[in-house]
Amino acid sequence: MSERNRLRSFLSIVYLNGILPMRAQPLYLVNTIASPLAFLFFVYIASHGALLAFGITGGLILTILTTGTGIQADLVHYKQDLKFQDVVVASPVEAPVYVAGMAFSEFVYAIPGLVVFIVLSVVRLPGAPPAGMEYTLGGSLTLLGTLVLVWAFASALGFTIATYFQDIRETFIFSPLISLVMTTLPPVYYPIQYIPAKFQWAAYLSPTTYAADLVHRAVCVVGSACYETPSWSAEVLDWGVLLGLTAVLFFLAATKARWREP
User: Fold this and answer.
1) Does residue 22 lie in a domain region?
2) Beta-carbon contacts of residue 204 (< 8 Å; ≥ 6 apart)
3) CA 71 to CA 157: how far, in whole Å?
4) Residues 230 and 251: beta-carbon distance below 8 Å
């Protein structure tokens, strides 16, 4: 298969699963951003605005994570209900091209939500305190890199799990659990200092804790480690965990996922 045909297949899948559904039903975009905005609202109300910046950065992470793991439902639907994956397997389209197209089509859903949270971080709403976030070139690149890694490992995880499902209803069980374990319980929407010191180790079992630490440093959230003495070891650990986890999940996706029915 030529590179031109690979690119055409990739873009066709992105259009089929991403752009076309959004054009037909714009409410898909509302559904994507509803939960992150709801969490932001409750965090803002409960903290009287003190954790607004944490709520915004948490919204960025939750939005990109859910669009990554959201690949589960689409893959199972195409595989079990429409039998589209069987057509792809029998066609010249290679598995990496198909998976990459499906993953990027999910990323398309996240773009409007990410834009909303970035706007909220720089625009002061009437009656609301400033978000207290600062953007620099280096911080912006760190933010972008972190979100890309979260999307990548979430997509790899979602893809691998989806290949073992036989019914789309199974995704309704695992998707909320993944969001709960990776964004609601860990210190994504709040500072890790809110967790008692003897239990903080548990927060580091979630990869999104490392992602949140990088994002907080990147945009210099007031109260984050950005305002402390820079710790290169902490940043190296954060990047190492995210890169290592992404590599492991991509390896599992390549070796353990069920591309063809047994």
Assistant:
1) yes
2) 210
3) 9
4) no
Structure tokens at 237: 């650990």
Q: Does 102 fall in a domain?
A: yes
Distance between CA 107 and CA 232 in Å, rounded?
A: 30
Residue 261 lies in a domain: no
CB 170 within 8 A of CB 186: no
The alpha carbon of residue 194 and the mean position of all alpha carbons in its chain are separated, in whole angstroms, by: 24
In a domain, 80, yes or no: yes
Tokens of 103: 């993953």
Confidence band (pLDDT; 50, 70, 90) for 153?
A: very high
Give pLDDT tens digits for 162-183. 888 888 888 877 877 888 788 8
Q: How many CB atoms lie within 10 A of CB 249?
A: 20
**Is 28:22 a contact under the CB 8 Å cutoff?**
yes
Domain coverage including residue 206: 3-255
Confidence of residue 242 (pLDDT cuts 50, 70, 90): very high
> How far apart, in whole angstroms, are the C-alpha atoms of residue 166 and residue 16?
22
Tell me the two tokens of residue 80. Answer: 């079990």
Token readout for 53 is 């910046």
Cα dist. 174→57, 108, 169 in Å?
A: 24, 22, 10
Q: How many domains does the chain have?
A: 1
Phi, psi angle pair for 159, to nearest 5°: -65, -50
CB contact set of 91 (below 8 Å; sequence gap of 6+): none
**Is 177 strand, coil or helix?**
helix
Sign, Cα dihedral of 182, 186, 189, 192: negative
Predicted structure pTM score: 0.88
Length of the chain (residues): 262
